[in-house]
Amino acid sequence: MPYQSIGDYEIEYEAVQVPSTEQWAAYLTIYGPSKNPMHRNVVFPHQQVAVAQSFSSKEAAETEAQAVALTLLGDKAP
C-alpha cells in the first residue's frame, strides 16, 4: 500500500482488484495530526473513492486515489 506524507497528514492509497474481473478499485485513508505519536487520527476513513469508476491497472487506481487525496487536502498539498 503506497504511503505519502503531506505536512502533518499521512495518506495511504491502494488499489483493490474487483472480484471476478481484471479491473481495479481505488481506496484511500487520510490521517491527520495527533497529539499522541502512538495514535493516528483518522480524518478520512478507509473507503473506496471514484466509486462509479474502475481502472484497468493497479497503478491507475492508485494514481486516482492519490489525486482524490490531494484534492481533499487542498491548500495543504504542495
Structure characterization notes:
The protein is an alpha+beta fold. It has one domain (3-76). The chain is built from 1 helix and 4 strands. Strands 1-2-3-4 form a 4-stranded antiparallel sheet. The longest helix has 16 residues, at 58-73. The protein is elongated and about 45 Å long. The relative contact order is 0.27. The model has no long low-confidence stretch (mean pLDDT 91).
Summed up:
The chain has 78 residues and is an alpha+beta fold. It is built from 1 helix and 4 strands; from the N terminus they run ββββα.
List the helices and strands and how they pair.
Elements: E1 3-6, E2 9-17, E3 24-32, E4 41-49, H1 58-73
Antiparallel strand pairs: 1-2, 2-3, 3-4
What are the segments in which pLDDT stays under 50 over at least 5 consecutive residues? Answer: none
Q: What letter string, H or E per element, gives the SSE order? A: EEEEH
- Domain unit count: 1
Q: What does the largest sheet look like?
A: 4 strands, antiparallel
Please, what is the average pLDDT? 91
Using only C-alpha atoms, the radius of gyration works out to 13 Å
Strand order of the largest sheet: 1-2-3-4
Q: Quick one: overall form? A: elongated
How many beta strands in the DSSP annotation?
A: 4
Computed structural class? alpha+beta
Q: Please indicate the percent range of residues in DSSP E strands (runs of 2 or more).
A: 35-45%
Number of helices: 1
Q: What separation lies between the terminal Cα atoms?
A: 21 Å
How helical, in percent, are the residues?
10-25%
